[in-house]
Specification:
The protein contains 2 helices and 5 strands, in the order H-E-E-E-H-E-E. It has 107 residues and is of the alpha+beta class.
Length: 107
């Protein structure tokens, strides 16, 4: 096993990961709840960028319903970001062959 080759591959992998993370920060996902009554947008760094609430979702007599819609939309956005991150990072690093460690599929 050539340590210099291994170090070079590790540096390449690190550079690919950094690039993928930078690209993810620029990508967004939007998730809705209640048939579009609440929509949230989140970036690939899990930062909540916006929350849109339609007026018909606001009922002073049923605040719990609105809270549930917001919670549901945020959780769905988190799930979508996780899928995006897994896909992007797997694509950036998938198939890298590290001597002595074998193939790193879908990392």
């Amino acid at each position: 096993m050539d340590i210099n080759k291994l170090m070079k591959q590790a540096q390449q992998m690190q550079a690919k990961m950094q690039k993928a993370q930078e690209e993810l920060a620029q990508k967004t996902v939007t998730a809705e709840a209640g048939g579009g009554q609440v929509a949230v947008t989140m970036n690939g760094k899990h930062e909540l960028l916006s929350i849109e609430i339609k007026p018909e979702a606001v009922d002073p007599e049923d605040v719990d319903f609105l809270q549930d819609l917001v919670l549901s939309a945020v959780n769905e956005a988190v799930r979508k970001v996780e899928e995006m991150v897994e896909s992007e990072m797997g694509g950036a690093l998938g198939g890298m062959n590290m001597p002595g460690l074998g193939n790193l599929p879908g990392m």
